[in-house]
Specification:
Elements: H1 2-6, H2 9-24, H3 29-43, H4 49-66, H5 71-84, H6 95-105, H7 111-138
Helix pairs in contact: 2-4, 3-5, 4-5, 5-7
Length: about 150
């Protein structure tokens, strides 16, 4: 993290990324959904929500602000992506507890059992959360006190 902040790679990636996204015309709802997917995939490899946000925020918050989006929207998209794959990653801090509860009723349960049982929930949450995000963006519904969709 120290090298990340000393090298100024975050602001550079933010500015260049925003310019590139504007050039190719990748904005709006597709961009937000792509960010949710990126956060979901990263969640499979990094268990700590705070660590993921510490890596992603210095890049994506300024990038999305340059594109005209409120930081609250970036945070919401991140939180949606983070929540979608929590039960699918063994790095999730409560995964051993989840596995313990399953083994209480099915002694031979393992990682595959948990994944097979949780995948339908994750898929349905993905659809519902993304649809809810789209509704908020389309109707410009405030995300909370002082937090909107656009700057």
């Amino acid at each position: 993290m120290a090298l990340f902040s000393q090298s100024n790679i975050g602001p550079i990636l933010s500015i260049k990324g925003a310019e590139w996204l504007q050039q190719i015309g990748f904005q709006g709802i597709p961009l937000l959904i792509a960010f949710v997917i990126v956060a979901s995939i990263l969640n499979l490899f990094l268990g700590s929500a705070g660590a993921k946000w510490a890596i992603m925020a210095p890049i994506f918050v300024p990038m999305f602000m340059l594109l005209g989006y409120d930081p609250a929207l970036t945070q919401i998209c991140y939180r949606i992506g983070d929540s979608l794959t929590n039960t699918l990653t063994p790095l999730f801090s409560y995964f051993p507890i989840l596995l313990g509860f399953i083994r209480k009723y099915q002694k031979d349960a393992g990682l595959g059992t948990v994944l097979a049982n949780m995948l339908p929930y994750s898929a349905s949450f993905t659809v519902v959360w993304i649809l809810l995000l789209i509704v908020f963006v389309l109707f410009n519904i405030p995300l909370g006190p002082g937090g909107g969709i656009y700057i």
